[in-house]
Design brief:
The chain has one domain (3-85). By secondary structure, it is mainly alpha-helical. The chain contains five helices and no strands. The protein starts with a helix and ends in an 8-residue tail after the last helix. 76% of the residues lie in helices and 0% in strands.
């Protein structure tokens, strides 16, 4: 697998992530506005900070069900790989 293939797979993963969890669309828009392109590893760092903050404050945010669904999506994506997780 080439570096270009890996980057394309990362972009597809982020597209599926945002399609399944539209609350991350503003985060992606802000990222692209700042960098003028999608830089997958930078976006995932921003996403991870948001995810950890949500997890730490899950009771106050009332996002337990959404957080569980998000973790299920992440787990399925990491277990099965890029193409096979397209319908997760």
């Amino acid at each position: 697998m080439s570096l270009g293939d890996i980057n394309a797979a990362n972009v597809r993963f982020i597209e599926r992530l945002v399609a399944g969890f539209p609350q991350f669309a503003p985060l992606l828009d802000e990222h692209i506005g700042y960098f003028e392109e999608l830089i997958p590893h930078n976006f995932m760092a921003e996403f991870t900070r948001h995810l950890v903050d949500t997890y730490v404050h899950v009771e106050a945010s009332g996002a337990a069900d959404e957080l569980a669904r998000l973790f299920k999506f992440l787990e399925a994506s990491f277990e099965t790989g890029d193409e096979r997780s397209a319908n997760s």
